[in-house]
């Protein structure tokens, strides 16, 4: 590196003997001031935990998608102009199809490594949405969305929606039979929207379905607009991670005012950088071993045929399942217009579900009234109601998702199609309540067990016979480091509603009080030092 | 009340929220006699720290993996050349995919595993500590920010000169509106979607033809229990818009025993000798209702499992669809071919707002 000396306003640099690296570093720094960034970020600390890798998987699969997708754009032709297929896949030779389908087949059968890149792209896309979903669950169940990270939750959730949009637009591009039926379903859903639906569909498809415009339009969204927004939001998302510093799990020595872990240089550069290659390698392995989206089996899109057991990519399943769950007869003509509640109910309920997830951090912050920053993660058991709400949400989503496979379930398990749908309807409506109750009780029981361990030690497995003939199992006290994990959590009590300055209790206060009671009426308080002292010598 | 909810006293001189008032903890319970944070547990050295031969082994593993990665890359390039795609051999695509992919996977995984192993086994494993500061700016910074806005307001007069401000807001709201109008051009002008959706290619006298060959169907060809996928004759010869027409005009043709057919009185003349024709496009969201159960005379839509009963004018017996599949009135022409009596008498396919 170089030493900078200032004499009478002139900056002089003296070369140190860093050789080429030093000279290059000096050259760049004198033009970019990059040493500031290295100083600020080079030894930045990141805590270690396997669950923190989920977000990394999402980021890396996005990079893989960009790399493989760029390769595909060089060969893909986003046109629905009819052509006769003349590539080397014999069963479809001479068949009329769109240029999009024909070029997708050429990527698969005529370009070396083309099929591999297509499969890398598709597998990475499936992994992208899956890892965002799991990352969000980790954030949710550990309470990492609390102040100051509420806005980053919102950004991340928008990224989740955009990832699904990217998935759907990409999945529709090859213009094969399966994706064409997917677009047909979108068209039917859009047409079911009151007032504007017919026109939105007309404009989207550039006329009547399917038209010759939709693939080109989805292509613009898929490779330009949506990726640009995603990249901008990812940049913001990561910027906030730097600003907030990473959260950490409770542990001895860790506080709300520190971050304990390894520095970016060198440990995290090696581990996180290496992890990118591992994710890429696993995706590559899947792409070379497992077929995904064999469009040549489906054939080109045609509005008349369809294959039994059609299913969208996994992340669209919950929406498709919601459509299947609607019982017959929910469509009416009223005021000389058609009201398609068989489409509106799924659309509105999924919209509400998404909205609740999006604003959940603000709801919880309002209920607790807690304005402190939270950098220590909650163990899920220590926030029983939140965990139970999460379990209910997961159950709701899972029930919708499994409904998307109702016909496959019926044929595989030899049960009736109607029976599966009725079971899924039951699971969607009642399942979340059961999940809520069970998860909450499990959390409370685990908290009680933690208390028990802190106060009375853990079961050592050593059985001792007392002089009187009684057998007891010796309980060993946990060490203070282990104990800290069990006792350090924030505890809330239900809100006592009080009249405001005008002596009135507002409706908002009542709602908040009710929610607060629902959240915190069942609570297990953390062990205090007083209790610890009282329990001393009580380890059996 | 402390802002430090973990009572992390001694560690890293944690002075939480220095410089501003402690934040409100809401309904959180702050306990006075909470258990103290015991501080960091003693550091446990790794086997590579204690045993030099383990360290050398780890080093060997790391560089072997990196060399292996080079082997993988070279293998992928070799596979690209050694396993070309041969036009006449469909299996060649699989080999090309498999071996390029395996080479690349090895190249990537070996770098990744090597780097992670290097980080975990050989790099210093002493944890570092960063001190957090409140996310909000310091009091001086915040005061200065407020001051800057006040100065900008003063110097521009945006608060004072309300006419300038309000007209600017108006202009900014108005200027994107032309862009919205431009999007009308996404769909063709001078066409009305709901008008288009109410008509199909079927007219009086159009012959029913087999999908996809376009061969007309004779009534005598339709044996009892059979089902035909049907398009209007001439669809294949349309210069353009074939898929759009097909998406509305696709029909399923089935022959049932006349006694099994429970026809509506107003549709008495719409079938021919037990042969009935129904739109193939689901009235739910428009998938083709392609699965016919010959024994029960039920049609099943594979997308969302709506079921229609052909013997009862295709009414919905299960699933999210509401309306029966529209029926195409058919007859037989002088040469014995099946023809349409007219277009469908109602719009086919998914419901839309203007439908009534």
Automatic annotation (TrEMBL), chain B:
Superkingdom field: Bacteria
Alphabetic keyword roster: 2Fe-2S, Cell membrane, Disulfide bond, Electron transport, Iron, Iron-sulfur, Membrane, Metal-binding, Oxidoreductase, Respiratory chain, Transmembrane, Transmembrane helix, Transport
Membrane topology: Multi-pass membrane protein
Region (Disordered): 1-24, 34-53
Stretches assigned to the Rieske domain: 248-339
Cellular localisation: Cell membrane
Principal cellular location given in the protein's record: membrane
Iron-sulfur listed as a keyword: yes
Transmembrane segments: 65-86, 98-118, 168-187
Protein name, per record: Cytochrome bc1 complex Rieske iron-sulfur subunit
Known function: Iron-sulfur subunit of the cytochrome bc1 complex, an essential component of the respiratory electron transport chain required for ATP synthesis. The bc1 complex catalyzes the oxidation of menaquinol and the reduction of cytochrome c in the respiratory chain. The bc1 complex operates through a Q-cycle mechanism that couples electron transfer to generation of the proton gradient that drives ATP synthesis.
Family of the protein in this entry: Belongs to the Rieske iron-sulfur protein family.
């Amino acid at each position: 590196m170089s030493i900078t000396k200032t004499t009478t306003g002139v900056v002089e640099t003296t070369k140190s003997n860093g050789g080429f690296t030093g000279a290059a570093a000096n050259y760049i720094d004198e033009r970019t001031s990059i040493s500031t960034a290295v100083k600020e970020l080079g030894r930045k600390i990141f805590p270690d935990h396997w669950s923190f890798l989920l977000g990394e998987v999402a980021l890396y699969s996005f990079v893989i998608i960009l790399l493989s997708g760029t390769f595909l754009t060089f060969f893909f032709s986003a046109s629905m102009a009819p052509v006769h297929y003349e590539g080397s896949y014999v069963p479809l030779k001479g068949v009329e199809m769109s240029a999009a389908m024909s070029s997708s087949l050429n990527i698969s059968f005529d370009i070396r490594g083309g099929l591999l890149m297509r499969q890398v792209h598709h597998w990475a896309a499936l992994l992208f949405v899956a890892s965002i979903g799991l990352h969000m669950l980790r954030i949710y169940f550990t309470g990492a969305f609390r102040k100051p990270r509420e806005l980053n939750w919102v950004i991340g959730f928008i990224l989740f929606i955009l990832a699904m949009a990217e998935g759907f637009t990409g999945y529709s591009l090859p213009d094969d039979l399966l994706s064409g039926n997917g677009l047909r379903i979108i068209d039917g859903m859009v047409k079911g929207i009151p007032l504007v639906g017919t026109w939105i569909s007309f404009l989207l498809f550039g006329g009547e379905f399917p038209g010759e415009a939709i693939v080109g339009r989805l292509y613009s969204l898929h490779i330009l607009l949506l990726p640009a927004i995603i990249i901008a939001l990812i940049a913001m998302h990561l910027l906030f991670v730097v600003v907030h510093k990473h959260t950490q799990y409770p542990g001895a020595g860790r506080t709300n005012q520190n971050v304990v872990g390894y520095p970016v240089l060198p440990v995290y550069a090696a581990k996180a950088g290496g992890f990118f290659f591992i994710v890429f390698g696993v995706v590559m392995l899947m792409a070379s071993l497992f077929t995904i989206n064999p469009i040549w089996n489906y054939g080109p899109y045609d509005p008349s045929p369809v294959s039994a057991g059609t299913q969208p990519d996994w992340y669209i399943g919950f929406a498709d399942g919601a459509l299947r769950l609607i019982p017959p007869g929910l469509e009416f003509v009223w005021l000389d217009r058609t009201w398609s509640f068989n489409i509106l109910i799924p659309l509105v309920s999924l919209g509400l579900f998404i909205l609740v997830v999006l604003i959940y951090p603000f709801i919880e912050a309002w209920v607790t009234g807690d304005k402190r920053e939270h950098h220590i993660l909650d163990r899920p058991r220590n926030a029983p109601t939140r965990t139970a709400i999460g379990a209910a949400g997961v159950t709701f989503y899972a029930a919708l998702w499994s409904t998307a496979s109702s016909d496959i379930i019926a044929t595989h398990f030899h049960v009736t199609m109607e029976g599966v749908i009725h079971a899924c309807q039951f699971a969607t409506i009642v399942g979340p309540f059961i999940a809520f109750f069970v998860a909450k009780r499990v959390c409370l029981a685990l908290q009680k067990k933690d208390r028990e361990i802190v106060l009375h030690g853990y079961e050592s497995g050593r059985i001792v016979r007392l002089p009187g003939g009684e057998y007891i199992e010796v309980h060993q006290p946990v060490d203070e480091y282990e104990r800290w994990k069990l006792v350090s959590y924030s505890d809330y009590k239900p809100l006592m509603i009080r009249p405001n300055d005008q002596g009135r209790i507002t409706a908002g206060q009542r709602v908040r009080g009710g929610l607060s009671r629902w959240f915190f009426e069942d609570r297990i308080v953390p062990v205090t030092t007083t209790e610890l002292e009282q329990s001393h010598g009580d380890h059996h | 009340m402390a802002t430090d909810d973990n009572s992390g006293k001694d560690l890293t001189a944690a002075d939480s929220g220095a410089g501003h008032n402690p934040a409100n903890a809401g309904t959180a319970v702050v306990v006075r006699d909470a258990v103290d944070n015991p501080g960091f547990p003693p550091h446990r050295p790794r086997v590579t720290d204690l045993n030099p031969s383990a360290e050398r082994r780890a080093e060997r593993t790391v560089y072997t993996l990196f060399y292996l990665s080079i082997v993988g890359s070279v293998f992928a390039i070799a596979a690209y050349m050694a396993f070309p795609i041969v036009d006449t051999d469909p299996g060649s695509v699989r080999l090309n995919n498999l071996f390029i992919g395996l080479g690349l996977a090895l190249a990537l995984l070996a770098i990744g595993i090597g780097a992670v192993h290097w980080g975990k086994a050989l790099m210093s494993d002493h944890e570092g500590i960063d001190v957090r500061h409140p996310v909000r700016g310091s009091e001086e910074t915040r005061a200065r920010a407020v001051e800057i806005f006040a100065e900008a307001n003063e110097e521009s007069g945006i608060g004072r000169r309300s006419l300038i401000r309000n007209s600017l807001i108006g202009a900014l709201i108005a200027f994107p509106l032309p862009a919205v109008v431009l999007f009308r051009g996404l769909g063709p002008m001078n066409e009305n979607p709901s008008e288009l959706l109410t008509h199909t290619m079927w007219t009086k006298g159009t012959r029913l033809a087999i999908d996809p060959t376009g061969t007309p169907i004779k009534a005598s060809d339709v044996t009892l229990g059979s089902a035909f996928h049907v398009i209007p004759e001439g669809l294949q010869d349309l210069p353009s818009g074939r898929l759009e027409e097909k998406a509305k005009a696709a029909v399923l043709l089935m022959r049932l025993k006349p006694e099994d057919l429970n026809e509506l009185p107003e549709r008495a003349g719409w079938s021919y000798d037990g042969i009935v024709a129904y739109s193939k496009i689901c009235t739910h969201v428009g998938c083709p209702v392609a699965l016919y159960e010959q024994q029960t005379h039920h049609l099943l839509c594979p997308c969302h499992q709506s079921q229609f009963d052909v013997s009862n004018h295709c009414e919905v017996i299960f699933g999210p669809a509401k309306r029966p599949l529209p029926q195409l009135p058919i007859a037989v022409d002088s040469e014995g071919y099946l023809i349409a009596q007219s277009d469908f008498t109602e719009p086919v396919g998914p419901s839309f707002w203007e439908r009534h």
